[in-house]
Design goal:
Oligomer: single chain
Strand content: under 5%
Order of helices and strands: HEEHHHHEHHEEEEHHHHH
Helix content: 55-70%
Distance between the termini: 12 Å
Number of strands: 7
Strand order of the largest sheet: 3-6-7
Number of helices: 12
Length: 324
């Protein structure tokens, strides 16, 4: 399929998702971090297409953020939620130059990083304000967020903050021999070794960004190991046909797709984009009559109207990122 056709397919996927769920800047049913990830899908579409018409979406979505959450997100006890939205707004600034996006992102990043940071459990950031566990899902997104802020501002101190989070993830959550990324460690020292697509994805992304900045091949090796694990061990090069249960889990693979695309491009490894396209072809073939695609990318999407907005966003992300 030609790139122009892949872009057209990506736009159709986004339009179908918007037609079902979008109203006045809001993706109806999306909570704080769901909304951030759907925001990023629109940004991914801009990256692959160059279509500046989506800047209107950025403005509408930012307006919804202010109406719903204000510009101060300290009320949210989930430190990871805040980091996801920081990433989305910083990227919006990078693409548009609208400083209000960056100002909101920086103030919330700084406050959240400070409240989450501690020396407990090997360093890094706590997941929630209760400080009961430290998770990959906050440390790796925080590392990504910090590096985008550094790129946006030229302030390299944010790379130092990113390095704190990456070092924690490598030391506490990563199997370098396999590429598997663990989920979390609790205050009692017990470790959840469950591996998920979104943790693999943000680990890959944070390490790749640090490698691109520093040229330190160690971080490229970390990213490569994690990328190989998710494609070849978790899915054996096949269709991502899982993650269907639960409120958040169905949306996870959309985050993985974002960072796999970037990894493939930066390392000139087309086999990863080819894998994404295989998955995109599958979910596209399985969409329902309204163009909605379920998170089990190898299953036919049913003709029903109660799919969760985040749960079906993962397939949209896969179709968009498969443009390459």
């Amino acid at each position: 399929m030609e790139k122009s056709e892949l872009i057209k397919r990506a736009k159709e996927a986004i339009d179908a998702h918007k037609a079902r769920y979008y109203k006045d800047g809001e993706y109806v049913g999306a909570d704080f971090w769901d909304f951030a990830e759907i925001f990023e899908i629109i940004e991914d579409y801009y990256e692959v297409s160059g279509d500046k018409s989506v800047f209107k979406d950025f403005e509408e979505m930012y307006g919804f953020v202010l109406r719903s959450y204000t510009a101060d997100w300290a009320f949210n006890p989930f430190n990871d939620d805040i980091m996801w939205l920081v990433i989305a707004l910083t990227r919006a600034y990078i693409y548009t130059g609208e400083k209000k996006y960056l100002d909101t992102a920086i103030s919330n990043f700084n406050a959240t990083y400070d409240r989450a940071l501690s020396d407990d459990l090997g360093g890094g950031l706590f997941w929630r304000i209760e400080r009961q566990c430290k998770n990959t899902c906050v440390n790796c997104p925080a590392a990504v967020a910090a590096q985008f802020i550094a790129q946006a501002t030229g302030d390299d101190s944010y790379y130092d903050k990113a390095k704190v989070c990456i070092d924690w993830a490598v030391k506490m959550m990563f199997e370098p021999d396999t590429g598997k990324v663990y989920d979390c460690i609790n205050l009692d020292g017990t470790v959840s070794k469950w591996s998920s697509t979104y943790n693999q994805g943000t680990f890959i992304g944070s390490c790749m960004m640090y490698y691109e900045k520093t040229g330190d091949k160690t971080f490229l090796d970390y990213a490569s190991s994690a990328a190989d694990y998710v494609m070849n061990e978790m899915y054996h090069g096949g269709i991502m046909d899982n993650e269907e249960p639960g409120n958040d889990l169905p949306g996870f693979k959309g985050i993985l797709a974002r960072y796999i695309r970037r990894y493939s491009e930066k390392t000139n490894k087309p086999e990863f984009i080819e894998w994404l396209r295989k998955n995109a072809d599958s979910c596209w073939a399985n969409r329902n009559s309204k163009g909605i695609m379920w998170t089990q990318l190898g299953h036919k999407t049913e003709e029903k109207d109660d799919y969760d907005v985040f749960a079906v966003s993962a397939a949209v992300s896969v179709v968009v990122t498969a443009v390459g």
